[in-house]
Automatic annotation (TrEMBL):
Keyword hit for DNA-binding: yes
UniProt protein name: Helix-turn-helix transcriptional regulator
PROSITE patterns registered for this protein in UniProt: HTH_CROC1
Keyword terms of this UniProt record: DNA-binding
Species of origin: Brevibacterium metallidurans
Segment forming the signal sequence: none
Domain HTH cro/C1-type: 5-59
InterPro entries on file: Cro/C1-type_HTH, Lambda_DNA-bd_dom_sf
Length: 75
């Protein structure tokens, strides 16, 4: 899962600890979500999105980043 969570949190000037407290989880959970090691429940994703004044769709994606094709790579 790809996440814009870290970038959005930083844009708002929040620490991992502040976000964790605001949504009712541990700082380690926020770290795991930001690192892509843990997928939040729907309820947690909604709380995170509300806290970060974003939509779930803006913060989380199941899409893998595009893989460069041979033409896209530099020689």
């Amino acid at each position: 899962m790809l996440t814009r969570l870290r970038a959005r949190r930083r844009e708002l000037g929040l620490t991992q600890a502040h976000l964790a407290e605001a949504v009712g989880v541990s700082r380690q959970t926020v770290i795991a979500i930001e690192g892509g090691d843990y997928s939040p429940s729907v309820y947690l994703a909604l709380r995170i999105a509300a806290t970060l004044e974003s939509s779930v769709e803006e913060l989380f994606s199941t899409q893998d980043p595009p893989t460069p094709t041979r033409k896209d790579r530099s020689p």
